[in-house]
Design a protein that fits this description.
This protein has 657 residues and is of the alpha/beta class. 45% of the residues lie in helices and 14% in strands. The strands form three sheets. The protein has a seven-stranded mixed β-sheet, with helices on both faces. The protein has a four-stranded mixed β-sheet with strand order 1-3-2-4, with helices on both faces. The chain has a four-stranded antiparallel β-sheet with strand order 5-6-7-13, with no helix packed on it. β6 and β7 form a beta hairpin. α9 crosses α10, α9 runs antiparallel to α12 and α22 runs antiparallel to α23. It is globular and about 75 Å long. The N and C termini lie far apart (85 Å).
């Protein structure tokens, strides 16, 4: 038996487990997360430019024309701050500039720095507009396009209202919005937000106030637990949380020194607990229909008036849906066809039958598959009246904000689509069909800054995209209606997750051929009905997307259809087109099926029992969502490696004749 020459250093069978057992892993993870968050906040704070205290001049005449400074109630900027901000915006080419007061409270600073990375904020064309909510400088032409200016004769906005304005303005100055610290600017008397104000501010930024309050309470409970049960490791984690404001904001050289930094650091756990409890209580006190506005007026009265207007709108929507459903949903479906719309074969079989899992509207839908060509299509399909009914409140209206949030998070996918053309062309003109609100065109400008992007869609969103400047021209209507008007005008036509929504995809391809100039490029992205996940997840596979998706086209069928119309396919991508939502989408659809939104206007009146059921299902689904996110990450990595995802992209060139 060989002995170690250094017996004191030789490991024993129990030494490694003993060492590991002494590490309190929950506390260690918390320490790592808090440490990383502290370093990130300090780094981000130092990336925010600081305005000079003295206003710069150009030959003695400050350039302030064309700018307007919007301020929250109680904020009174001096002339030097206004002129410094104008000069900074002119110099940096900004059209919107949110100003951070020099005495901004510590927790407000940390909250903003969690949401915004100043180094990449301006370049993120799809990023949410964020600000402190006290002062924002905006070019008058941007303010006019956005229609977001406060009434000069009305009351000054609250911080929450100004945050909502900043969020909207970023959409109209997608790559020209920034942040700056204004040392001479003061928050005024509204620096610390109470429960209702904090809840309103979170909602104004598109964040779920109730869920965040619950998460904060859970985090505080976890910190308290590890501090009590995990000895020095737990005490270190709790201590780091306690002094985080000072470490992130108070070290020498920090560009912003909150007036309440010492108090915010010393009393942080108690203040955080109180703020979370007040926010949670405020979100639970939702005014009911007919709630009277507070007699003291001001921001609370405006909030009550807006809530009353929303109640009236919801009641009107419910009446309209009840009228639509009085005659049943069968009238929304056409007669079932006996043959395949792609190849004419009568060898059809049912692929899947599902209800509306997207919104929970009444009805049941069938997708059939052709045994000859593999084409999958809705049979019977929705009538135009049915399409209007089932699309309503999904991309606009009640569901508009949620849809916009989802589209705004697809920046990587948009860039991948745009970069697919790099080896083949430098496009001068590009028409995006099914553009929605123009998110792809907005993101693609970062790849093709000199390209003219136009958009086409049936909805009003295309007009909004035009006002935002995300598209040069917005064409509203059905694509085939523009075959003659736009003939030969574009070098590139894109159809990203569009063909599957159309009633006649072959007619859409005919129109694309007509609109493209000879030698032009057609790029298409579609769900792949041959994906393995479609069989594994069955009705819970998200890309079935019933009842909106009318056709799911195998890639071989699309290749053949393009060749028939004079196109040569140049590239086909499966892995890069994969959308990493298979498992997450399956959990979401299942949760919706088990407990639909009780407040949906097309459903029965909400009751405490239905609300309790929905809350219980959502709570129970949280660990399922977490597991699904992990599985989707693994699935996406595999799809990229094997080129076998749940969608595919195809690039084809129109032959020159």
């Amino acid at each position: 038996m060989t002995r170690s020459p250094f017996p004191a250093l030789a490991p024993t069978p129990l030494s490694v487990p003993l060492l590991l057992s002494r590490v309190r892993w929950t506390s260690a993870v918390l320490l790592a997360a808090l440490g990383a968050g502290t370093v990130r906040a300090a780094r981000r704070l130092r990336a925010i430019p600081v305005l000079p205290l003295a206003a710069p001049t150009d030959a003695g005449v400050p350039r302030a024309a064309g700018w307007r400074l919007l301020t929250a109630d109680g904020v009174e900027p001096d002339a030097a701050t206004f002129l410094s901000a104008c000069a900074h915006a002119d110099r940096e080419g900004l059209r919107v500039l949110d100003l951070l007061p020099g005495d901004l409270p510590a927790e407000r600073v940390l909250g903003l720095l969690r949401l915004v990375d100043p180094a990449g904020y301006r370049q993120d064309r799809l990023g949410e507009g964020r600000g402190a909510g006290f002062a924002v400088l905006v070019a008058e032409e941007v303010l006019a396009r956005a229609g977001a200016g406060a009434d000069p004769a009305g009351p000054d906005p609250t911080p929450a209202e100004l945050m909502a304005v900043t969020r909207r303005l970023k959409e109209y100055a997608a790559d020209a919005t920034g942040l700056a610290i204004a040392p001479a600017l003061s928050c005024g008397p509204r620096a610390d937000a109470g429960g209702p104000e904090r809840a309103a501010e979170l909602r104004a930024q598109g964040l779920p106030a109730g869920a965040l309050a619950a998460a904060q309470l859970a985090g505080l409970a976890l910190l308290a637990g590890v501090a009590v049960r995990q000895g020095r490791w737990g005490a270190a984690a709790a201590g780091l949380y306690w002094i985080q404001p000072y470490l992130a904001l108070g070290l020498p050289g920090a560009p912003l020194n909150p007036a309440d930094l010492a108090r915010a650091t010393a009393a942080r756990p108690a203040r955080a607990l109180g703020a979370a409890l007040r926010t949670a209580a405020a979100t639970a006190r939702t005014p009911g229909p007919g709630a009277a506005a507070p007699e003291n007026g001001g921001a609370a009265a405006r909030d009550a008036e807006r809530e009353a207007a929303r109640d009236t709108q919801r009641a009107g929507a419910a009446r309209a849906y009840r009228a639509d459903l009085a005659a049943g949903t069968d009238r929304f479906l056409e007669a079932r066809r006996p043959d395949c719309p792609w190849c004419g074969s009568r060898r059809l079989s049912v692929r899947v039958r599902v209800p509306d899992l997207l919104q929970g509207k009444p009805g049941r839908f069938t997708l059939e598959q052709c045994g000859a060509c593999g084409h999958v299509f809705q049979n019977p399909r929705l009538s135009p009246e049915g399409l209007e009914f089932y699309y309503r409140d999904f991309y606009d209206g009640r569901g508009g904000e949620g849809a916009a949030t989802v589209f705004g998070r697809l920046g990587a996918a948009y860039r991948g689509r745009a970069e697919m053309l790099r080896p083949y062309t430098d496009p001068a003109s590009w028409l995006d069909v099914g553009t929605g609100h123009g998110h792809f065109c907005n993101a693609a400008r970062a790849v093709w800054p000199d390209t003219r992007f136009d958009g086409l869609d049936m909805g009003d969103g295309v007009r909004e995209a035009e006002r935002r400047g995300w598209v040069e021209t917005g064409h509203q209507g059905q694509f085939p209606e523009f075959a003659v008007k736009l003939a030969g005008q574009y070098q590139v036509v894109s159809m990203y997750h569009y063909l599957e929504h159309t009633r006649n995809p072959l007619a859409e391809l005919d129109t694309a051929a007509a609109v493209l100039a000879p030698g032009g490029y057609l790029t298409i992205e579609l769900p792949d009905p041959e994906s393995r996940m479609a069989r594994l997840l069955g009705p819970a596979w998200l890309p079935w997307f019933q009842p909106q998706h009318q056709h799911l086209i195998p890639s071989a069928n699309l290749r053949e259809a393009l060749a028939d119309r004079g196109f040569t396919v140049l590239a086909e991508e499966h892995g890069p087109a994969h959308q990493g939502n298979d498992f997450f989408g399956a959990v979401a659809l299942t949760a919706t099926r088990l407990a639909p939104d009780p407040d949906r206007p097309w459903g029965p009146p909400a009751t405490p029992g239905r609300r309790a059921l929905t809350g219980a299902v959502r709570l129970a689904a949280l660990p399922c969502f977490a597991a699904a996110a992990v599985l989707d990450g693994l699935r996406t990595a595999a799809a990229r490696r094997t080129d076998g995802g749940n969608a595919y992209r195809m690039l084809a060139r129109k032959d020159e004749r």
